[in-house]
Amino acid sequence: MQRFSRTVLRNSAFGMAAQLVIKLLSFGFSVLIVRHLGAAAFGQYTAVLAFGALFVFLADLGLSPYLVREVARWRDASDGPEHANALYGNVLLLRLLLSLLTAVLLIGTAWLTRRPPVMVGAIALGTLGLIMYSVQGTSEAMLNGFERLDLSSGARVLNQLMFVLVGAVALLLTVGYYGLIIANLVGVALMTFACWHGVNALGIRPGRIVARNWPILLRASLPFGVIGFTLGLSYKFDSVLLNIFRSDVETGYYNAAYNLVFSAVLFSNAINTALYPSLARQAASAPQALPHIYERTLRYLLVVALPIAVGTWALADQIVSFLFKAAYLPAAPALRIIIWVVPLMFTSEFLGYIIVIAGKESHVARAIVVSTTVNVAVNLILVPRFGFLGAAVMTVVTEAVLVGQYVWMLRTLIQHFNWGQVFLRPMLAALVMGAVAIALRHLPLLFNVAIGVLTYGGLSLALGVLGRDELHFVRSLRHRTEASIS
Predict the structure, then answer these.
(1) Alpha carbons 305 and 205: distance in angstroms, whole number
(2) What is the pLDDT of residues 227-237, one digit of tens each?
(3) Phi and psi (nearest 5°) for 10?
(4) Which of 159, 154, 152 lies closest to 190, judged by CA?
(5) What is the pLDDT of residues 183-205, one digit of tens each?
(6) Rounded to whole angstroms, how far apart are CA atoms 130 and 57?
(7) What is the rounded distance in angstroms from the CA atom of residue 372 to the CA atom of residue 237?
(8) Could you tell me which of 385, 386, 48, 103 has the C-alpha nearest to residue 239?
(9) What is the pLDDT of residues 118-156, one digit of tens each?
(10) 324 to each of 37, 38, 251, 443, how far by Cα in Å?
(11) pLDDT value of position 284
């Protein structure tokens, strides 16, 4: 158990630090991109990225998350290294072939939907990244399976740093969003090299290719692939529809708000990424320790997510005008709606991991298919008529449908959670903070945010949401895990 706690601590620390660097760089640079390109060009740029996101699942088909789980489960077995090498070699070649096929389909779809030639060219250029991702993604999955998130996180920091540096030069040279795509390719190339080098440093080499095993691999990874596809469709389909049925400008407004929301998933993603391989191994050896970890982690996630949602809702106008040009103020209503997806996303991501750890990824896939079907069907009705506000509403509804399904699947487990501690008290503290923010909205934004943070922190302590033991989370995690086993 000490090894488990040390591993989670290392992965959480490196993961959180790396994600913090990545998100700060990404957030700051995305603000510059929005301000520099303007709503129309930014809308076209995000539409290019959205087209790619719809097809990226084909380049993986769930092989990477499947690889993480299998390596984490079996790496300590007597034949673990041999098994890992064999998986590495076969998944690597499979992903390379899938990436080439995906590139052809992506360019063909952009042409068939009559996207402007400048967009088709940008999409074609971006497919070079898919080829590199086949190597990078497989190598990163191996690193994560061996619980070396410090190495994979470092590679992602290098990627983001290079993207920002080269992208900044592109913005200064005013070469448009093509320069940003090239900057991304440079960053991906560096990240690919770093992940490949990290795998080699662990003594892992691609094993013998056995093509007859590929159908077995694809069948086993398919639930993960369905999860990836439906999530990508759910998150990006609205941007594609906005670009086709409305305008580049509306697409730009929507994605300006949307990107702010997704910058808030730092904490959730870092914790879940760190816990996933460790808990996948823990589930096989000490499953009785998991419920307490699940409850505590969910509480921490909501302690962060709820004030973000309430505070952004209260100060949406100030936030948009502070970060972007005044021309982006029409995005504020969309931000006020879509920000409520943050606590839902924090919850859905974590609950989904719980189900996957239990080996029921097909249930997760089915749930995401249902929520995505709702998203696609209703967006086809709402977006042409109501534009980006309709898309914002459906983003929140889609995530709520997903959370509802997960809660039902895990009802036996989570009915024993202390929901007053997990949700009600943090929500009460956040609502009071929001009321204070609204009352003081005549003040400068940063001053108002500082008062909100102090208000929420004080209320959290007063209501018992946070206490002295929160400073010793990892130590408590270890002690409680050991006590549950003894």
Answers:
(1) 41
(2) 777 777 777 88
(3) -60, -45
(4) 159
(5) 999 999 999 999 998 888 888 88
(6) 10
(7) 10
(8) 48
(9) 888 999 998 898 889 889 888 988 888 887 877 887 888
(10) 11, 10, 15, 18
(11) 62
313 token code pair = 């809702």
Q: Give the residue among 262, 342, 270, 275 at the shortest CA–CA distance from 302.
A: 342
Listed residue (282, 197, 199) closest to 7, CA to CA: 282
Element at 282 (helix H, strand E): helix 266-285
Reference 365, options 374, 375, 357, 355; nearest CA is: 355
Q: State the DSSP code for 417.
A: S
Q: Rounded to 5 degrees, what are φ and ψ at 206?
A: -55, 125
Helical H segments across 113-242, by residue range: 117-145, 149-172, 177-201, 214-241
> Residue type for 361, please?
E
Pick left, alpha or beta for residue 85 (phi over 0 → left; psi -120 to 50 → alpha; otherwise beta): alpha
Per the model's pLDDT, the better-predicted residue between 55 and 159 turns out to be: 159
Quote the CA–CA distance of 279 and 296 in Å, as a whole number. Answer: 14
Gap between the Cα atoms of 142 and 361, Å rounded: 19
pLDDT at 46: 85
- CB proximity list for 116: less than 8 A, separation 6 or greater: 44
Q: Do the beta carbons of residue 157 and residue 17 sit within 8 Å? A: no
In percent, the amount of the chain with pLDDT more than 90 equals: 21
Residue 246 DSSP class:
I
Please answer whether residues 142 and 96 qualify as being in contact, where contact means their C-beta atoms are separated by less than 8 angstroms: no
Tokens linked to 404: 């509802």
Find the mean pLDDT for residues 451-476: 74
pLDDT of residue 177: 86
Q: How confident is the model at residue 278 (pLDDT cuts 50, 70, 90)?
A: low
Query: Domain ranges in the chain?
Result: 2-485
d(CA 227, CA 367) in angstroms, rounded, equals: 9
Whole-angstrom CA distances from 373 to 27, 51, 58, 350, 443 are 30, 18, 18, 21, 43
**Residue range 407-417: mean pLDDT, rounded:** 89
Taking CA atoms, 296 is separated from 1, 274, 416, in Å, by: 17, 15, 12
Which structure tokens are listed for 96? Answer: 């390379």
pLDDT tens for residues 350-367?
898 888 887 787 888 888
> Of 22, 61, 340, 333, which Cα lies nearest the Cα of 159?
22
Query: Exposed/middle/buried for 462, CB within 10 Å: 0-12, 13-18, 19+?
Result: exposed
